[in-house]
Specification:
With about 450 residues, the protein is of the alpha+beta class. Among the domains are: about 75-170, Beta-Lactamase, CATH 3.30.450; about 285-435, Histidine kinase-like ATPase, C-terminal domain (Heat Shock Protein 90). Helices cover about 50% and strands about 20% of the residues. It has eight helices and 14 strands. β3 (about 100-105) and β4 form a beta hairpin. About 25% of the residues are buried.
Length: about 450
């Protein structure tokens, strides 16, 4: 006999309208996540940058204030040109963070400096200090390209501006600090944005996954229902149209009997589809509660025995002890009933159907074996697909919807169980259902 254990199906979703919409929505959500993160990053970066710049400027001002000339010193060299974009460097070996530049005498309109060489920078700031009377910090670039901070402080005597004192310091280090901060901030924003794109895309996918699954199930349910109901509706319509064209009461009766039979078939199909739909939407999730295996088996046997007698099939029910299971008793009853009804349906008159139970370690094992027509080896991987019916079944015109085994498989998986099938054409088929027993679950 050949054996087969169904695996969870892996189906590719077609790019339908709803899926394209979900994909577009996913990217929109991702863009929203990234946009919000960028705004937050920029606000925080701008705030920190402003604070850092303010702190650097304040520290520079404190240093330069401490190195202003203390008083006017007319022994210093007179600066002849104060309009060049250069500045005298401090003496070699001077390790001070800043140095005195000199002072500007307002009355004489002349600059004085302690250095014998070097030309003073153009002091537009000194003019503003003269006009406003307020100290000013300038960032200038010397002729050799070196940046400098120059601080100008007005001096008043009896309310009159008499001079403007200046000090300076190399601005390379403070500017490097600000430049490195900007580089780090830019790098952080780029990396954080890339992480936001990846993380946002994943999070958006997770958020939309239930909707995608719901759409998939809805499409599957609609396709299944239309496929399965199309044939009986066509039969009913065709039979009714033929009956309308005759006056023979016998043909009317035949038409009505056909319509009733097809209606019963549609009712069973709709009921099965509704069961699968509830399971798909998890409305049919199992309600775990302890119950007696003996009670379950007796209920299943009471339902199956009349069906077997009517078909002329010999049914063998098991003797069960006091074992208990935890699960949904009605769902498990439904699972076993599907398997037994199928076994009777595909077993010819005079054949046997064996129903057995045993405990195997942490599992409760139910077995349904028949001496029926069997299933071809190449068809075993498909028998749990919805609406699938084997070639022999179609050839023999055995009625059915092809949904029973799909329901049985869903119920087994809802109980963290498995269902396995062995079959040989012309010999029979055996279904084995393994479920966790009371208080125990199989390891994943």
């Amino acid at each position: 006999m050949t054996g087969f254990t169904p695996q969870p199906p892996r189906r590719k979703l077609r790019q339908t309208g709803i899926q394209a919409y979900l994909k577009t929505t996913r990217w929109r959500l991702t863009a929203s996540y990234v946009g919000i993160l960028l705004v937050v990053e920029l606000i925080i970066g701008l705030f920190v940058g402003v604070l850092l710049h303010h702190q650097v400027v304040r520290d520079v001002e404190h240093v330069l204030q401490d190195h202003l000339p203390k008083e006017e010193n007319h022994e210093w060299n007179e600066g002849h040109d104060h309009k060049h974009n250069t500045i005298p460097m401090p003496p070699i070996g001077d390790d001070r963070p800043a140095y005195e530049v000199g002072y500007y005498v307002v009355a004489d309109k002349r600059w004085y400096t302690p250095y014998t060489s070097g030309v003073l920078p153009y002091q537009a700031g000194a003019d503003r200090v003269s006009a406003t009377g307020n100290p000013e910090l300038q960032l200038i670039t010397a002729s050799d390209g070196t940046p400098f901070y120059v601080y100008s402080m007005p001096t008043f005597h009896d309310g009159t501006l008499t001079s403007i004192r200046q000090s300076a310091m190399d601005a390379t280090l403070p500017l490097d600090v600000l430049r490195h901060f900007n580089m780090l901030l830019t790098t952080f924003i780029i990396l954080a944005s890339a992480a936001a794109v990846i993380g946002g895309y994943i999070l958006a996918g997770r958020a939309l996954r239930p909707i995608a699954q719901m759409a998939k199930r809805q499409q599957s349910f609609t396709a299944d229902a239309s496929h399965q109901l199309r044939t009986p509706l066509t039969v009913i319509r065709t039979t009714a149209e033929l009956a309308l064209g005759t006056d023979d009461p016998a043909e009317w009766r035949d038409a009505l009997e056909t319509a009733v039979a097809e209606t019963h078939h549609m009712s069973r199909t709709v009921e099965s589809l509704a069961t699968l739909a509830r399971m798909d939407y998890q409305e049919g999730a199992v309600k775990h509660s302890p119950f007696s295996v003996r009670d379950l088996v007796e209920e299943v046997a009471a339902h199956i025995e009349p069906v077997a007698r009517e078909k002329g099939v010999i049914f063998h029910a098991p003797e069960v002890g006091e074992d208990r299971l935890v699960g949904d008793q009605h769902r498990i009853w439904q699972l076993l009933t599907v398997l037994l009804e199928n076994a009777i349906k595909y077993t010819p008159e005079g054949g046997h159907v064996y129903f057995s139970y045993r405990q195997n370690g942490p599992e409760a094992v139910f077995t349904v074996r028949d001496t029926g027509i069997g299933i071809a080896r190449e068809e075993l991987p498909h028998i749990f697909d919805r609406f699938y019916r084997g070639s022999v079944v179609q050839k023999e015109r055995i009625p059915g919807s092809g949904l029973g085994l799909s329901i049985a498989k869903e119920i087994a998986e809802l109980h963290e169980g498995t269902i396995h099938v062995d079959s040989e054409v012309g010999v029979g088929t055996t279904f084995t259902v393994s479920l966790p027993i009371a208080g125990q679950k199989k390891s994943s």
